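Researcher: Please predict.
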Amino acid sequence: MSRVLYYAQRSPYARKVRILLAEKNLPCEMKETDIMNKSPEFLQVSPIGKVPVLVDEDGTTIWDSTLIMEYLDETYPEPGFYPSDRKERLECRKWENLADTLADNIIFLWYQQMKGDNADPKDRAKYQAAIDRLLPVLDEKLAASSYLLGDSWTAADIAVLSALGYYSLRFGEDWQQQYPKLGEWFKNLHERESVKSTVPVG
């Protein structure tokens, strides 16, 4: 059987996996999924009803983007995106979790914006404050190295990039001027074909 990824084009979590598949040159059938109108086929492979979901060639089925990322990196280790050293790998996972938290808050903020006059100002302020707390942490982290964890990009960089790509889609790119190191890193990574080919569109 062929490898299949169920995804949504704008999902930052699915984009993580799409970038990794491209970087590892792993052929994959892409099945775009309407997450607002989930098909029986999709719910059969994803009981939690979220994208992405990977069904590998041997039938192994995984949901949750980080679990998929780790599975792909362990199963197809070249090139590697998680450090082999236990402590370094934990550090990578830590920053990947921060990236997913950033993405969560960006999505929640977008949902509030979509509500228009029915939005809760307190919720909107809460999500924006969470984003504003995380961006300077990332900007400072990149002041010391080319990538989040040193001289090579890792799963952590892919996750942050994907979150910020969604932020740019929904709220524009002003953040790049406010956080110049982060903005420069973001721009440079878009020179990679795996990144350019997965840019979310509205």
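Model: The first helix runs from residue 12 to 23.
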